[in-house]
Amino acid sequence: MRGLKFLIIALTMILVISTITPLAQAQPMSAKRIVEVNQYGLVYVYDEVPRTGGLTKISFPKKMLANLVNYRSPEDPNPELKEDGDVFSIIVHSRSGDLVHLVTIFRDVVRWDAMNARFMLRMSLNPILDERVGEFSIIVKLPSDAKPSRISPNYISEKKDGILSGNTSRIDLTERRPQTLSIDFTSDKLNLLDITDVDAEYSLPDGFVKLGFRFRNVGGKGLSRISFKLPANCSDIKAEDQLGKLLSSYYPKVRSLDVTLRQQVGVGERGSVSIYFKLPPDNPYVKASDNKFRISPILPINTTVRRYGVKLLLRSMEFMSSDPEPVELVRVYPESIKLTYIFDHMDPFSAESSTIILEYKPLFSIFGFMPYIWIGAILAVILAAVTCIYLKRPRIALSRVDLSMRRLVEEADSLIASYQDLTSLITSGRIVEKGYVRPRILDLRASIRRHGDKISAIASDLMKSSPELRDLMVSLRSSVRRLEQSVEELWVMVHRYLSGRIGRSAFEKRVDRHYKLLKRAYGEFADAVEELRERAK
């Protein structure tokens, strides 16, 4: 009887286990999306989806490609971007784990409705996947003071201040036309900020840094304060604008520098601010070893930058080489060299991967003799002061034509800097790295077109006001148009490569051939600019 009871118990347990196991295996897969709007309008999208073999494809409507800033996955250091009809996909290579995670950054998906004084978030509700899931959940994080007035779809609701969420099993994530996430809301903490330029100056080796920001308030209430997150353990911190020092407060625990602007910047208006600080000896942004510096751009504000310029001031050093090459090298007295680099796009992800590696040679310093030099300098100043009293130089007022010529030279220099960044993509071989090249070549293309349009407009005005400059202006306009056309033809090749229409080998051959044509077009433009410089002197 004991043996029979034991057999019955064993058979019962086997039946129970065999019943539970399929139920466990039949647990439906789920996908999760988190949409987070930061205080300056950048939108982070965090997707968690089931892994599908070695390649997991997470897709978005193709119209969102124009808003894409950058992307990253912890499972794959180099995700691949591919266009496919009416969608674009980010392909993550992963061979372990049940889930794949992707972070994408978008801009301009939050817009300002000036008539109703509200913000409007519009983007795809869900990721587009290759396989169905049993449940989809979404969380939307708005600024903590946000007050939603319209939310769609209706299964999403506000759970607490600034946090909305919902889930559904009645959704097909394989549908190539996903639903739209639509939220209208108000917020006093949100400003849509467009940072057009950052000018960074690093003084080496002492570690002093100046960051100058030029920006435009695109939406929200008037902007009266900007917050910056500085590197840890900074000192000598201050903020200024063109008129002098600004009121600022620094909170070391959170490394936050809050700067109060001199006057409120309204919607559509522009402003500027500069912050200064000294980096500690042990910091991740300026590293020195074996007569080499490794410099990383500092982006202390969580948004994108259209143009990020870097100036490195080397004291008592001789410049040997750098990667990338500087766009300008100027020797500054005494015993200093100023190097200029231009990045035409910067975002929170690319700032971490963009570096300047600089090799230098230490120089003997004359500063030990400075007391004697100062005595001579004081005597020279006294003599110069006496001379200036009795010999005044007349002021030279620049004419309207001279000012236009200077503006023309400045725009030409900016276009040349963008061109050099574009050619560095080709010569470095990084033009074949799909995830790296897309945001950069789009910005470079836009930058060259923008500066080219300004050059053409100024040249047209000068042709009307100064007939003697007509031939030069015609040459300049023609050469810049040919250069723009050559850049556009290069973009078409890159676009075909990114969309998978041509393979890597064929793409490299076409780029090599086109590079010669691009250099020829640039040569014509450079000749016209050189003649322009001579006339502008």
Question: How would you sum up this structure, described in words?
Answer:
By secondary structure, this protein is of the alpha+beta class. Helix content is 32%, strand content 37%. It has helices spanning 2-25, 350-353, 370-390, 400-427, 434-465, 470-498, 504-536; strands spanning 30-37, 43-50, 55-61, 68-72, 80-84, 87-93, 99-106, 110-113, 118-124, 135-141, 147-152, 157-160, 163-168, 180-186, 191-204, 208-220, 223-229, 235-241, 244-245, 248-251, 256-265, 270-278, 286-289, 292-295, 305-315, 317-323, 328-332, 336-343, 356-362. The strands form 6 sheets. Strands 19-18-22-16-15-25-28-27 form an 8-stranded mixed beta sheet. Strands 4-7-2-1-10-13-12 form a 7-stranded mixed beta sheet, with no helix packed on it. Strands 8-9-14-11 form a 4-stranded antiparallel beta sheet, with no helix packed on it. β23 and β24 (292-295) form a beta hairpin. The longest helix is centred in the last third of the chain and has 33 residues, at 504-536. The chain is globular and about 85 Å long. The termini are far apart. Residues 1-12, 14-26 and 392-397 have low confidence and may be disordered.
Identify low-pLDDT runs. 1-12, 14-26, 392-397
Find the count of extended strands (DSSP E, 2+ residues).
29
Share in β-strands:
35-45%
Overall shape: globular
Largest sheet: 8 strands, mixed
Question: What's the rounded overall pLDDT mean?
Answer: 86
